[in-house]
Every structure is written in structure tokens, then in C-alpha cells.
TrEMBL record:
This is ABC transporter domain-containing protein. Keywords: ATP-binding, Membrane, Nucleotide-binding, Transmembrane, Transmembrane helix, Transport. It comes from Talaromyces rugulosus (Penicillium rugulosum). Residues 206-216 have a biased composition (Polar residues). The keyword Transmembrane applies.
Amino acid sequence: MSSLKIGDWPSRAVEVIQSQLPLISALYYFVASSIRVALVKGSQQNTLSSSLQNGIICLMAIVLVGYGADAVLLLYATFSQEQHLLEDRLVFALWSLLLWTTLLCGLTSSGHARSLGFPHWGCWVLYTAGEGVLLFCHWASRPRLNSGYLALQLLRIVTLVILCGLAALQSCLAKIIWNNRCCRGEAARPLLQRLHARYNNGYSTITNDSGSNSTNESDDTHAPKEVHCSPGAAETLRGIIPFVWPTGKIRLQVFYVGVGLCLLTSRLFNVLIPMQLGEITDILKTGHVFPWKNIVYYASLRLLNSYGGVGALQTCMWLPLENESYEKVATTAFNKVMDLSCDFHVSKESGKVYDTVFRATGVHHVIQSLLFQIFPMVTDLCLAITILHVMFGPYMGLITASITVLFVWSSGKNLSAQREIRQEYIAARQKDVNILFESTTNWQTATYFNKIPYEKDRYSCAVNHHVKVDTTYKSSFQVMRMMQSFVLALGLLGACFLVAYQISVGKKEVGSFVMSIGYWSQLSNPLQFFVNGFSSVTINLVDVENFIALLNTKPSIKEKPDARQLTVQYGVLRFDDVRFSYNSQQKVLKGVSFETRPGQTLALVGATGSGKTTILKLLFRLYDASQGTIEIDGQNIRDVTLQSLRGNIGVVPQDPALFNDTILNNIRYAKLSATDEEIHDACRAVNLHDQFTALPNGYQTMVGERGVILSGGELQRVAIARVIVQNPQIILLDEATSSVDTVTEAHIQKSLSRVAVGRTMVIVAHRLSTVAKADCILALKDGKIIEQGAHQELVNAGGYYSQLWKQQLLDEHANVAKGTDKSLLKPEAPEFIPQQAAE
Ligand SMILES: Nc1ncnc2c1ncn2[C@@H]1O[C@H](COP(=O)(O)OP(=O)(O)OP(=O)(O)O)[C@@H](O)[C@H]1O
């Protein structure tokens, strides 16, 4: 292109710099930005103050305008004088214009791009050095530059030097700020905590890692500190690697390599196919030869590059990789949810958890999109731009590069907007699923309160909102596609004009036109894929982010690394000054201390909300006491494994729930190896055997969701039967017989007293007759034990327990005297007036 003389070193240097500087800078920017996104954590990015940022944007705009003015002047000069000498400089000015536009767009677009970093700094330094050398070479070469160009070049160099100075300043400032933060210990905080502090959406709960006792009274709370965590794209990608890379499975790793090779082969075919088409056209143009060999070769290439060739091989190797990742994600997510502690489960929304786990199983889609869409797209793009540049000159290269930059920039803008809409869409869908779960699970409550129409309305509103957000999401996608098609059509027009011009002036053959169209489609196809590819990556990343946040959630109850097996010999329970709160507002246990004797039956009584169930929960380590110690046979329950602790304790909860399975399987759940006979014996002990055998399907009867076909009393008895089958050393009964009649209760008590021999039993009951025979009764009031002793002792003492006992006797007598039915129909029953209204 240039007619510079050999030996004229300044001119040669100018030629090299002009042709290579934009290319090297662009390459550097691309690679550095990718590294930055992948490696640099959000908290480490150096964000500038807005005034400094605006100053930098203005300086960059000056450089940009400088190249623009250069291009206009050179364009004018190209048509009037010394075309061949000026063309190189014109191309340099145009490429630089494009590069600086990209740099400026990168800086002014939203998000992390607003913070400067080494990708920009490097480009500034490269350009400052390049322009400096150019100036020197221009000064040393003949003919000298005219004063207009010189002034423009000087202006650019001064601006570039200032930019480099600012870059150095910012780097120093960032270091000082970072060091200060480190001194304050901020950087030393674990990454998760920093994430928690930074983000505001997720699942995590922070807990004391050591699981040690807090001795600080002010910290006397177990309030789950709900902190939120939303990892960034790079962190999310790093987080999913273990789920997609088949560690230790050589066969699957080979498949990954195979998929990569298939993708590369396919790229090679993409280069060969348009070339072959151009050759066929050129041969046909001569009009004398039938190019059958070329046509067969062309058709074979197309076949090999289709789903009948490389595509089929690629799919065969990808399928096992996809299944492997599905299995890993599904099991990890399920295990994680099951391992989380009670505080997570009481506050979770089942629909949301289900949705998160379900969507996360598509984690392989991220890799699929990256591998099958983004990687081929970037390769195809680079190949197409290079080939078009080499074959049709720098202007064709400029057209393709400009279209690519425009396309990528506009898509990036749209995608970040889409990401927000996607979050909204996920929230709307989770709400919809949640209502579906809640309403169907609580169908009975809705029916009792005649709220079925209300539930229908609630669900319909949620679905309506979901659909609206979905429509917005899809419409934005459509608008983006329209805009991008327009940009592509514009580029195609430019490219066609250029090649047609080159053919018309005899620089190219007709086949070049066909070839250029082939390569153009190779450029536009990946660009269009860019939309789909990045869009699906964006969608899947948002899905996976929630999954990663779920994985980052730490269970509040943890085993110590050196936890031992619990050995229960006597079943002695000891509470020493145990304090506990679920949240900072209310202290539930305020220093509870007691100790049982071996094989003792202990009863907890007291007003509702006094903390009886909480004592059982602490014993079972559903929560950890904020202060004080709990021991079983002298072993602190924090020092033993959860498995051995829970294996030695049998619990009958207040509201037992069953799986939607047969009666037999539900009872066998307590001990999977239990024989049918053991189960029948347990049912005999709770007066259920005859009842179950009388059912049409006997023990094989399905109990419905949560055991809905059983009465409250039957459910409680099944729960007791389970514990009898489990045969643990310690039994906790929380209002276990509150729903059974007194005759059945007496029968169960008899069975339980047989079971209790040599075991420790803790009974929580409101009906005091249930606990009258207990060895020791603890009377609780407002989280404190106010009385303890045997039934008769406490009655004789005439204190709180004795009052409760008298009150119950009075109530029973009154009920017998009045008759329960009559009391229900009492016409003078006072109407419930809400407190506010009453005031
Ligand atoms: N998960 C929880 N989160 C917050 N507060 C809770 C939680 N569970 C229980 N509480 C509160 O702790 C207090 C003690 O509850 P607990 O269940 O121990 O009482 P209780 O004496 O067993 O009552 P009842 O006899 O009615 O079963 C109550 O005020 C209750 O509202």
C-alpha cells in the first residue's frame, strides 16, 4: 500500500506503528478486560470520584475528536494529493477512532465498567508511546508534516500524557485506600462477609464458625442474621466450575477435549466453505469447465459441518457431560438444603427453594452457551474479520470491526437492562410458585375460613404479574433483535458496495463477491448468536447466582471438626444456666438450670410461650444456646456429632407430619430395618393395631399429604409408635397426647411407662394429669424455672404449680357440671373485640 523507500527508517517505523498500534492496543484491551472480569473482585475495583471520572471522559473525548479531525483532513487530502502516502495514515486515524470510541463506551457504560483499571491504562500508555515515536519519526522524515496535523498530534500527545499521569495517580490512591482498609481489618474479613455487606439479595445466614459459646450477654440471641449475597458474574462462573468439570473422570474429561476439537474443526470448515464457493463461481464464469470436483468438495464440506457430521459427534460427547453436571447440581443442592439448620427451614419459602434448585439444574446451559455459542462466535468473528481484511483491504476490515463494535456495544447495553428484567421475572415466578405451594398445602385452612375465592384471586394476580413481566422481558429482546438486524443490514450494504466497487475497477474477480457474502454471513451469524448466546448466558447466570447464594449459606448448627460420638449410658440431662433467644427482641430462656437422675421421667409445665418446647429444641440441637451448657451423661452436646446426638433421642413433636406413603412405611421411617412385627407391636402399644388392620388396605393404606387422612389423635399415636420402633435412649414428648381422649391416653401412658424403663423421658404437657406421675416436674414461667419437684410436693407447696393444678380441677368439674356442648352454645359468650377497636 505504501511506496516508502527501503532504508528510510523513520518512514518504515511510521508504517509499522500506524499499522500495528491500533491492533496491538485493541488486542491488549480485549485480553486485559477479560482477565479483569475473571480475576478482579468487585471490592478491589478502583472506582473514581465522579468529577475525576468526568475529567477523564473529557480528556478521552479530546483524543477521540483529535483522531476524528485527523481522519476528516486526511480523507479530504486523499482525494486531492499524494493518495498512496496518506492512505496509511487515514487507515490509522480511522482504526484509532474506532478503538477510542470503544474505550470511551467501555468507560461510560454502566456497572463495573465505570471503574477504570489496567485495560484502559495500558491502552493510554501504548498510545502515548506510539504517538511519541510517530511524532519523532515525522520530525526526522521527509516530507515534514504540515502544521495542522502537527498541532493535532501534539494536542493528542499532551492529552495522552495527562491521562497516563492520572492513571498513575489513581493507582497510587487506590493502593493507599486499600492499605487503609486492610489496617482497619476490612480486607481481612472473609469474602462471604464482604459479599454479605455488599449485596442485598440471597439466603445466607452468618454464624459463629467455631460453634463456640458466646459469653456476652448482649449477644444473647440466636437471631438468624439474614444477610444477603449475590455473587458477580465472574464469581458465579468460578463457582460453577466444580459442577461442570468432571474431576477424576478421565473418560468425561476426554469428551470435553473432543467437544473442543469438534468446535475447532467446525471453525475450519467455516473458512473453507466460502472459499470453495468463490472458486466454483470463478470457474463457472469462464463458461467452459464443469467444476464437478469442486461442487462435490463443497457439498462434502457442508455435510461435515452440519448435524450429520461434526455436530453429531459433538452432541454424542456432550450428552454424558450434561447428565453428569445435572446429577452433581441436583444432589448438591438437595444435600445443602437438607443440611441447613432449623432457622433456615422455619424462615424459608418452599416455592423459592424449589425454584432455585430446579433452575440451577440448568447450570450446564451456561457452559453450553459459552462453549457452543460464545466461543465459536468469537472465533468466527475474528476469522471473518481477518479474512475480509486480508482479502478486501483495510476498509473492509474497518467496516466489519465497526459493525462488530456497534453490535457488541448495543447488545451489551440491552443485556444489562435484560438482566434486571430477568431478576424481576424470577421474583414474579417465585411468588407465583410460592402461592401455588402455600395455597394447595393450606387448602383446609382456606376452606375452613371460606377463603378459596381469595386464594384464587391471589394466585391469579401473581400469575398475571408474572405474565406481564414475561411480556416486558420478551419484548425487550425483540426490540434488541430488530436494532441489531438493522445494524447488520447497514454493514452488509457497505461491504457489498466496497467489493462491487473493487470488482468494477478490476481489482477483484466476480467470485470475490460471492466469497465476501459467504464470509459476511459468517460474521453476521455469530453476531446474531451473540444476542442469543450472551442472552442465555445472562439468563442462566442469574439462575445460577441464586443457587450459588444457596450453597454459600452456612448452617447455624455445626459439628466441631473433632466431634466425638455421644455415648448414652444413664441418660442424665444437665442444663447449666442456659439462655436463649430466637431474635433480639425477646429472651425466651433466661438461665435455665436442672439435672435429671438416671432413667428419670421429667415433665415441663407452664403457661403457653414459657419456653418448654424451646428446651426440647435446644436438647435436640435444632438451635444452640446463646449461653450456658447442655450435657448428656457429662458430654457437652456441642462436642458430639449431630448424627449420634439425634440418633439417641426420639421426638414426638406437637404437630407430627407424615409422608404421603403407606402407614407401614411411615412408621418404619424411624428405623428402616424394622420388621413388620416390630411395627405391629408398636401400634398395639398405642392402641392403633386393630384400627389399622380393619382398614381395607390395612397397613398398606396411604395416609395422604402430611397424613391428612388420619385424625389428630391417630397422628399423635403414629408418631409415638415411630419412637417406640426407634427405641432411643432419650425420649422427648411435646404435647404428645393432647389430642387423644383420656381413656386412650391412659392406655398410651401405660405403654410409655413400659418403654420408659431405663430411659430418660422429657414430657411437655398442658394437661397436668398427664405428668402427675413424672419423677420430677419443672414449672416454667417467662423462661425461668420457678418450681421443681414431684407432683404431690408441688401441690402441697401451694405455689404456681398448685394454682395450675387447682384451676384444672375446677375447669374439669365445671365442664362435667355444665356439659361441654352447652358451654359451646353459651348465648352470653362475649364477642371478640380487637384491642384497637375497643380503645
Ligand atoms: N422459630 C421461632 N422464632 C421466633 N420465636 C419463636 C420461635 N419458636 C418459638 N418462638 C417464641 O418463643 C417463645 C417460647 O416458645 P415455646 O414454643 O418454647 O413455648 P412453649 O412453652 O412450648 O409454648 P406452648 O405450650 O404453647 O407450646 C414463644 O413466645 C414463641 O412465640
